[in-house]
Write a structure and sequence with these properties.
282 residues, mainly beta, Immunoglobulin-like, 2 domains, six-stranded antiparallel sheet, six-stranded mixed sheet
């Protein structure tokens, strides 16, 4: 015997109310999640990417900011907040290597900073512990975002990386905008002159490099150390690109460096050139 029409309508009404309630709760959860981030962040995610032929996964951190806002490169320059990454909670991930795309150099409150305007797609090369199995990429990330003021932001992101996904055009474009060897652009030699100071040393750097066109910025790094390194404006002296950096040890201790361990990046309006090591000279 068929049920009365009013009973069927009551059931449909109840179902519709349940669906509406679930949708409202879901919307509320999304809104609460968005309120955990500053309004200046319009979008953030880990893009799952694809698996390369050698078994690694190519994922990416994708960050999009509000108009006028910036975030920072691994070396933020004279003003800014260096990004920090903790991937230790990831599963089946032996290592995670950031493949930084070319940043821009910009002025901020009278200082020189290095970073990305409005958007950053940071490729992440993930090597699995066990080949052929999915990777759960879990990141605890601290970044700085700046306009007139700077705000540190903590992000907790996760993504499952599986084989079989097609190549991501957004990540691939960021990889194409990565670093190339400075020798390919005509670098002949980089020399470093070291001058001791009171609790620091000054490193004067000369790169024998043809003019690359437009503004050029030479950045020095000491990978694997916790030394503080300043960055001064780069200039041309004849055919050489010249810069100076002050280096301090934590706690004001003695500074000791090996010239062969110093890493250099030369930023231009179209390229990011890299080189490792320098010889004695000035």
């Amino acid at each position: 015997m068929p049920r009365p029409v009013h009973n069927r309508l009551s059931a449909l009404t109840a179902l519709a109310a349940l669906i509406a309630l679930q949708a409202a709760l879901a919307s509320q959860a999304v809104a609460q999640g968005l309120r955990a981030l500053p309004a200046q962040i319009e979008h953030v995610e880990l893009r799952p990417g694809w698996q390369t032929e050698d078994g690694q996964h190519m994922a990416a951190l994708h960050l999009r900011l509000a108009e006028g806002w910036k975030t920072y490169w691994r070396i933020p320059g004279e003003a800014g907040i260096a990004p920090q990454f903790d991937w230790s909670r990831s599963q089946n991930a032996a290592s995670v290597r950031a493949r930084w795309p070319r940043p821009v150099v910009f002025a901020q409150n009278g200082y020189q900073s290095i970073g990305y305007v409005r958007e950053l797609v940071l490729p992440l090369e993930v090597t699995p512990d066990r080949a052929g199995r999915p990777v759960v990429l879990q990141g605890e990330i601290t970044i700085g975002i700046c306009d007139e003021i700077c705000i540190p932001v903590d992000l907790s992101l996760n993504q499952v990386l599986r084989a079989g996904a097609p190549q991501d055009a957004v990540i691939a474009a960021a990889l194409r905008d990565g670093a190339t060897a400075a020798a390919d652009a005509g670098l002949q030699e980089i020399t470093c002159a070291i001058t001791p100071g009171d609790g620091y040393i000054t490193l004067k750097i000369r790169a024998d490099l043809p003019r690359q066109g437009g503004a050029e910025t030479l950045v020095a790094e000491l990978p694997g150390t916790d030394y503080w390194i300043s960055q001064a404006a780069s200039r041309r002296e004849g055919d050489a690109l010249v810069s100076e950096a002050r280096i301090r040890a934590p706690g004001g201790g003695a500074v000791g460096i090996e010239r062969g361990a110093v890493a250099f990046t030369i930023l231009t309006e179209t390229q990011m050139l890299t080189h490792r090591g320098c010889t004695s000279g000035g």
